[in-house]
């Protein structure tokens, strides 16, 4: 059974039962109150007619011995029908008919009124009885008060309520249907959106303006869908990168291997002049060095993915000072000037990985035709920022987002001539991730490139630095 049907039937059942029970209780309460009022009136009538009986017995002590017709004429003095029974002789004088057989006349006490409510067909009445002692007369007085109108009102009210009940149910059915439709509409939207997402449409969202629980459910669903869409995009990007990695890796191997095999075969099968032999061997050496660089960097990437590194607290000034000995000759070889401006600071790093990361950045900078290389380290709040800036060819803005992808090269021909494999920035990004450092690359494609690494400093690092 669908939720709509469950809610609809529950609403109908609850409303129907509640309304019927409320009406029943209200009618019965009104009936009981009216009966209590009629009992009060019946007791008042009894007391009044008791005084009449006592007066009659006072003036006519032989009341039960007089002629029947005369006695019946005297009964006209009573305001309600009565039933008189002499206690000793059990003589009866009455103008109300026979008493019900179950009426407990013999159980009446002389200090307490006894009453019973009886129904005879559509007639309903209250019998009130008490023991009356007047002079030498001992008599049971029974009065009869007709309350048939009360019972008729009760039946009429019950019938009227039943008609109202059916009309209200008839009106409430469409209203409850619409209310249930409103309640479940947003839930149906959630279900429809979930089915579309299951079919691959991850852009589905639910438009809802409510702030109730259903609205919160829709908002939570939209957040979940956004996260799913983001993760799917990440997985798609990862799959694309793996495909690109495989294709690029095969390409990077195919081109040099084809050349190496061709030149080797030429050397093997032909007697070439020394100059041509040297040229072919040089090409084989150059391509072999590029393959060697490729294999080393691939191995570094695999190691980074499978090994856990312990980051130790170290002085940034000392670490960059040690790397100056490696960066200086690199700049001199490519005709670039090195400028270092490093402040004292504390970072957490693995020195070998830190060295690989900085040297890769410096190598990229000098190979981009840079005339100057600036290496700086500064304290910025809770972060220690290391920035490596050059004034080389730069990177086009459209390609900045892909610069850390494996085998991605801005200038493929230049990178191959310099034995590049397109893995340097991939290594840098991976090492930055291991260190929890924020990597930012800025370039306009004309005036050089700036790479910054922000290392988060913990409270203990600040304390040690300030000592």
Walk me through this protein's architecture.
With 467 residues, the protein is an alpha+beta fold. The protein folds into 3 domains: 3-159, 2-Layer Sandwich (Beta-Lactamase); 202-300, Helix Hairpins (Orthogonal Bundle); 308-466, Heat Shock Protein 90. It has 10 helices and 12 strands. The longest helix has 57 residues, at 3-59.
Question: Layout of SSEs?
Answer:
Elements: H1 3-59, H2 68-75, E1 82-86, E2 92-94, E3 114-120, E4 123-134, E5 137-146, H3 148-198, H4 213-269, H5 274-306, E6 312-315, H6 316-333, E7 337-342, E8 346-349, H7 351-367, E9 372-380, E10 383-390, H8 412-417, H9 424-435, E11 438-443, E12 449-456, H10 459-466
Parallel strand pairs: 7-9
Antiparallel strand pairs: 1-2, 1-5, 3-4, 4-5, 6-8, 9-10, 10-12, 11-12
Task: Supply database-style keywords.
single chain, 467 residues, Beta-Lactamase, Helix Hairpins, Heat Shock Protein 90, 18% strand
Summarize the structure.
The protein is an alpha+beta fold and 467 residues long. The chain has helices at residues 3-59, 68-75, 148-198, 213-269, 274-306, 316-333, 351-367, 412-417, 424-435, 459-466, and strands at residues 82-86, 92-94, 114-120, 123-134, 137-146, 312-315, 337-342, 346-349, 372-380, 383-390, 438-443, 449-456.
The proportion of residues forming helix, as a percent range, comes to 55-70%
The secondary structure category is alpha+beta
- Note the beta-strand portion: 15-25%
**How many separate domains?**
3
């Amino acid at each position: 059974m669908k939720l709509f049907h469950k809610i609809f039937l529950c609403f109908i059942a609850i409303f129907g039962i509640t309304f019927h029970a409320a009406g029943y209780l209200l009618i019965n309460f009104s009936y009981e109150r009216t009966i209590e009022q009629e009992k009060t009136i019946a007791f008042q009538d009894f007391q009044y007619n008791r005084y009449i009986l006592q007066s009659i017995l006072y003036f006519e002590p032989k009341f039960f011995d007089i002629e029947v017709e005369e006695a019946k004429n005297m009964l006209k003095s009573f305001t309600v029908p009565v039933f008189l029974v002499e206690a000793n002789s059990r003589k009866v004088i009455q103008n109300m008919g026979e008493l019900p057989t179950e009426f407990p006349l013999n159980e009446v006490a002389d200090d307490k009124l006894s009453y019973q409510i009886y129904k005879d067909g559509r007639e309903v009445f209250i019998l009130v009885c008490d023991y009356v002692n007047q002079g030498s007369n001992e008599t049971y007085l029974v009065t009869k008060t007709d309350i048939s109108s009360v019972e008729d009102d009760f039946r009429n009210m019950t019938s009227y309520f039943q008609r109202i009940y059916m009309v209200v149910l008839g009106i409430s059915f469409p209203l409850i249907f619409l209310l249930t439709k409103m309640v479940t509409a947003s839930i149906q939207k959630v279900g429809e959106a979930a089915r579309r997402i299951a079919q691959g449409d991850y852009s589905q969202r639910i438009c809802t303006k409510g702030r109730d629980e259903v609205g919160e459910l829709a908002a939570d669903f939209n957040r979940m869908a956004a996260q799913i869409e983001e993760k799917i995009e990440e997985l798609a990007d990862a799959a694309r990168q793996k495909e690109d990695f495989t294709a690029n890796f095969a390409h990077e191997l195919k081109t040099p291997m084809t050349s190496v095999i061709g030149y080797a075969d030429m050397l093997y099968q032909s007697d070439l002049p020394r100059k041509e032999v040297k040229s072919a061997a040089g090409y084989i050496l150059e391509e072999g060095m590029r393959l060697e660089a490729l294999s080393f960097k691939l191995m570094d990437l695999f190691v980074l993915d499978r090994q856990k590194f312990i980051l130790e607290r170290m002085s940034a000034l000392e670490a960059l000072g040690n790397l100056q000995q490696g960066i200086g000759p690199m700049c001199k070889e490519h005709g670039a000037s090195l400028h270092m401006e490093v402040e004292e600071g504390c970072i957490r790093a693995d020195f070998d990985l830190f060295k690989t990361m900085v040297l890769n950045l410096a190598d990229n900078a000098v190979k981009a035709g840079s005339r100057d290389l600036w290496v700086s380290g500064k304290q910025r709040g809770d972060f220690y920022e290391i920035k490596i800036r050059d004034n080389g060819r730069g990177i086009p803005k459209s390609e900045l987002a892909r610069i850390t992808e494996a085998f991605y090269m801005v200038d493929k021909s230049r990178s191959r001539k310099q034995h590049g494999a397109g893995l340097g920035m991939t290594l840098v990004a991976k090492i930055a991730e291991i260190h929890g450092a924020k990597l930012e690359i800025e370039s306009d494609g004309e005036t050089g490139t700036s790479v910054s690494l922000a290392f988060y400093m913990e409270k203990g690092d600040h304390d040690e630095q300030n000592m």
